[in-house]
Every structure is written in C-alpha cells, then in structure tokens.
C-alpha cells in the first residue's frame, strides 16, 4: 500500500509542476474583459505566450531567447523597449507603437499582413541588430529616423503619407529572396550606396509616390523596381542601375530625375532594354540632370521622355549598336527654354 500511495503522490506533484510551469505553458498578459496596466513583461520559453485584449504595455516586453514565441492579440499601444532576443512575435492584431520605442535585440515579426503603426510621437525606430519583418505593413504617422537593419520577407509595405523617413548611417532596408517591399507615399532621406536593396534577383521594390533623397551615390544591383505614380530622385548624386533584371515605369506614372542627379544605366548583363515603359502615359522626366549609359547601350521606347532645363545625355558606346537610343515609338517633349547636350553615341531611330 505504501508504494502505491507514494506513486499517487508523485503523480500529483508532477501534475502540479506541469500546471504551474511557465516553461510548459508560457505567460498570458492582459484579458479580454478589463484593462490592465502591466509592468515590463518577460515572456519565457513556452508554447503559448500571449499579449491579450486590453493589456497596456507602457514599459515594453521581452522574449527570453531565440526559441521564444509570443502572440500579440491586443489593442493598446506599446512603448519603451521591445527585446525579442532573436525570438518571434506573431501579430493577430495591428500593433501600435508609441514614443519612446526601442528594439534592443534582433528578432522576427510575423505580421500576417497586419500593420505596425508608428504613432505621432514615435519619431525614432531604434534597433541594435538586424530585424526581420514577414508580411508586414509599417505605417508612419510622423517623420521618423531608422537605426538598424530591417529585412523584409513575403509582401511588405512601408508607408507614411506626407512623412519623411531618414535612414541613419549603417541602416538598411533589405528585401529577401522571392519577396517584395512597397515604399508608398513617403520621402526616404539619406539614401546611398546600397542601403535599400534586394538580396537576390527574385526580390523586387515597388516605389509608389516616393521621393528618394540621395545623400551619396546609390547602386541598385539585384532585383527589379516598379515605378508607380510619381517617383522622384533628388540630390547631387548618381543612381547606378546595375541589376541584370528589367524594371518598369507603370502607366500613368512618372520617374523623375531632378536637378544635379545622374541616372547611370550600367546593367551587369549586356541588355539595353531593361527599363520598360508600359505605354505612352509612362513618363521619364529629366530635369536639369544627366542620363548616362555604358557601352551596353540603352533603348528608350513606347513611353514619353520629358526634357526640362539643362539635360545632358552621354553614352560611352563605341558604335550604333551600343548607343543611347531614342526609339521612334518614344514621344519626346522638350520644354520651353530647355537645353539638351548629347555626347557620344546618342541616336534617334
């Protein structure tokens, strides 16, 4: 009888330990029926960590390790520090972020097409390490500065109607293979080198109503770009198009290179037709800038070319087969007072 009693006691102890163990069951913060103001929440390595309903995390939260997961299914903004420690945060609701907001560790947010909204006071997006977003929409309701490396998987978007987003030194927006990043209704400042890029040719950018404020020469070497609506490059720098994949100026859209910029067409593959214009409402607008092509050549056709102020066209092609060619299907409009300088193999056919 004693061994049997001891066995029952041992079984009860084991069951109690299982029920109370945060490792087995994780941690739930908040509830669906009342508001709770929570201190900094620390989520353990468990199967079901949850931020629920009316949880108000004014002091942020932390995941224990890179094997920790947490589901966000709440309504109130989160502020202060968020440390994923390499773990994964999965969104079942939009996540509103308030100032101050700081991501102090790397990690992944599986957004499931939900939005991370940076509210009017969230002026800095600080990350210590690389951060991954999967199927995420980032909405900026204020001008903001990014510190860190943001990687995007699946279909993602960054938008901010009328807002400016500045990339600090060392920051990057990176599109992972077989993924797309839409930049929409926003000005991106401090663009340069390769700080907005695709890792592979299967990645793509969509620029929709975007201003690229370039502070250094910018190279796009992998993937493709769809220029949609109005896209403007500004600065005193060069946009070097070196990818071997074609890009498109959409219908009813304008790609503009503003004063003192240079568009250098230098694809890594010998193909002169990698800038495609959908129809005559696809506009390439050169205003006081330089259009340059290497001996690969560049053919512009189908769309509309607008020339304004002082425009320079230069080709290093050695013969007509390597020329910067304005095809007869291209509508060319020279605005009043504009001057166009042509050097090298620049031809109209």
Report on the structure:
This protein has 349 residues and is mainly β. It contains 2 helices and 33 strands. The strands form 2 sheets. It has a 6-stranded parallel beta barrel. A 3-stranded parallel beta sheet has the order 27-30-33, with no helix packed on it. It starts with a helix and ends with a strand.
In short:
The chain is mainly beta and 349 residues long. Helices cover 7% and strands 58% of the residues. The protein is elongated.
Percent helix, as a range, is under 10%
Strand fraction: over 45%
Q: Give the uncertain stretches in residue-range form.
A: 1-24
Count of helical regions: 2
How is the biggest beta sheet arranged? 6 strands, parallel, barrel
Distance between the termini: 103 Å
Strand order of the largest sheet: 8-10-12-14-13-11
Taking all Cα atoms into account, the compactness measure Rg is: 26 Å
Q: SS-based structural class?
A: mainly beta
Q: What does the overall shape look like?
A: elongated
Mean pLDDT: 90
Total number of strands = 33
Which terms summarize this structure?
349 residues; mainly beta; single chain; 2 helices; three-stranded parallel sheet; 58% strand
Compile the SSE list and pairings.
Blueprint: H1 2-20, H2 22-25, E1 28-37, E2 41-43, E3 50-56, E4 61-63, E5 69-74, E6 78-83, E7 88-91, E8 95-103, E9 107-110, E10 115-118, E11 124-134, E12 137-140, E13 144-153, E14 155-167, E15 172-175, E16 180-193, E17 196-198, E18 204-220, E19 224-234, E20 238-241, E21 247-249, E22 253-257, E23 262-265, E24 275-277, E25 282-287, E26 290-293, E27 298-300, E28 304-308, E29 310-315, E30 324-326, E31 331-334, E32 339-343, E33 346-348
Parallel strand pairs: 1-3, 2-4, 3-5, 4-6, 5-7, 6-8, 7-9, 8-10, 8-11, 9-11, 10-12, 11-13, 12-14, 13-14, 13-15, 14-16, 15-17, 16-18, 18-19, 18-20, 19-21, 19-22, 20-23, 21-24, 22-25, 23-26, 25-28, 26-29, 27-30, 28-31, 29-32, 30-33
């Amino acid at each position: 009888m004693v061994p049997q009693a001891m066995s029952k006691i041992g079984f009860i102890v084991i069951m109690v330990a299982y029920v109370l163990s945060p490792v087995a069951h994780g941690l739930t913060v908040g509830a669906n029926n009342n508001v709770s103001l929570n201190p900094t929440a620390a989520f353990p390595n468990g199967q079901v960590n949850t931020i629920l309903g009316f949880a108000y995390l004014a002091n942020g939260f932390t995941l224990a390790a890179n094997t920790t997961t947490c589901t966000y299914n709440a309504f109130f903004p989160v502020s202060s520090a968020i440390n994923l420690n390499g773990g994964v945060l999965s969104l079942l609701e939009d996540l509103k972020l308030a100032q101050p907001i700081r991501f102090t560790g790397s990690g992944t947010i599986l957004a499931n097409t939900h939005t991370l909204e940076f509210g009017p006071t969230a002026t800095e997006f600080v990350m210590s390490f690389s951060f991954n977003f999967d199927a995420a929409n980032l909405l900026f309701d204020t001008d903001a500065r990014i510190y860190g490396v943001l990687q995007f998987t699946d279909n993602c978007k960054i938008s901010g109607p009328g807002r400016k987003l500045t990339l600090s030194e060392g920051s990057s927006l990176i599109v992972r293979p077989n993924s797309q990043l839409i930049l929409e209704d926003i000005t991106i400042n401090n663009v340069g080198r390769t700080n907005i890029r695709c890792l592979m040719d299967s990645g793509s950018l969509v620029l929709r109503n975007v201003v690229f404020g370039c502070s250094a020469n910018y190279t796009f070497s992998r993937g493709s770009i769809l220029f949609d609506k109005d896209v403007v490059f500004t600065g005193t720098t060069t946009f070097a198009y070196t990818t071997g994949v074609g890009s498109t100026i959409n219908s009813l859209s304008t790609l503009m290179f503003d004063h003192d910029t240079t568009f250098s067409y230098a694809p890594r593959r010998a193909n002169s037709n990698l800038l495609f214009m959908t129809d005559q409402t696809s506009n390439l607008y050169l205003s006081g800038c330089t259009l340059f092509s290497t001996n690969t050549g560049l053919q512009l056709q189908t769309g509309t070319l607008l020339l304004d102020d002082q425009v320079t066209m230069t080709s290093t092609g050695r013969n007509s087969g390597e020329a910067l060619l304005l095809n007869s299907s291209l509508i060319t409009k020279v605005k009043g007072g504009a001057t166009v300088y042509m050097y090298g193999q620049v031809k109209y056919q």
